[in-house]
Amino acid sequence: MKKVLSILAICFMFALSFPATAPAPHCATDCNDEIACTDDTCVEGSCVHTRNDALCNDDDDCTDDYCDPEVGDQETGCVFVDNNTCDEGDEGCTPGYWKNHLDAWPEGYNTDDHFSYHFGLAITIRWSEKGKPQDEENPTLLHALQAKGGGESRLARHGTAALLSSAHSDVAYPLTLSEVLTAVQDGDIDTLEEANELGCPL
Fold first, then answer.
1. Are 185 and 82 in contact (CB under 8 A)?
2. Alpha-carbon distance 32 to 42, whole Å?
3. Tell me: the pLDDT tens digits for 83-115?
4. What residues contact residue 91 under an 8 Å CB cut-off, 6+ apart?
5. CA 154 to CA 147: how far, in whole Å?
6. Taking the complete model, does pTM exceed 0.85, yes or no?
7. Which of 9, 52, 98, 160 is the most exposed place for a label (fewest CB within 10 A)?
8. Measuring CA to CA, how many Å separate 32 from each of 16, 46, 93, 174?
9. SS3 content of the chain, % helix, strand, coil (to 5)
10. Sign of CA pseudo-dihedral 59, 81, 180, 173
11. What is the Cα–Cα distance from 172 to 150, expressed in whole angstroms?
12. pLDDT tens per residue across span 165-197
């Protein structure tokens, strides 16, 4: 009997050596914010609402989907933005438009940028500010738009117009920037000219 009591005493003293663990604080209210795209949890007594973009998937490859309760749908909090990957594109602006509307050029493209800088292609065009056109090597984008005649001059005109149209957010151009670069490097002027003459929305 004494042995049993001794064992119980030891167990009791052992238990007293470990402080009781305080219960985790609880949130005073239900943490559900009733916004479908957030994960709602209680962390150390405070509600935490974590945005979960995966909950906004609309299974549409033509949109970029994300969770933003501040600007998204009132119930779901989701935002679905057209990513332009499904647009066929039925607009384009001609070389004449771009050379006469310099203020409409998309951001990041300047009149004194060299054609070779954007296209990785060295060309020689026929150009002159006044008088008879002369050969000009390594032309700027503006000079490329003003180039006279066919051949590389025609390629420079339509290549530059296609570059600006594809880069402009308000032009639903049928070719991507990558496709424009490839067409220029392949000398596919007809494709570029056809796209540039679809009609300018600007």
1. no
2. 10
3. 766 666 889 999 999 999 999 999 999 999 999
4. 165, 171, 172, 173, 198, 199, 200, 201
5. 7
6. no
7. 9
8. 40, 12, 51, 45
9. 35, 15, 50
10. positive
11. 27
12. 999 999 999 999 999 999 999 999 999 999 999
Residue extents of the structural domains in the chain: 38-82, 95-196
Single-letter amino acid, residue 6? S
Structure tokens at 75: 């119930």
Closest CA to 155 of 197, 191, 202, 130: 191
Contact between 155 and 189 (Cβ < 8 Å): yes
The length of the chain in residues reads 202
Distance CA 57, CA 114 (A): 42
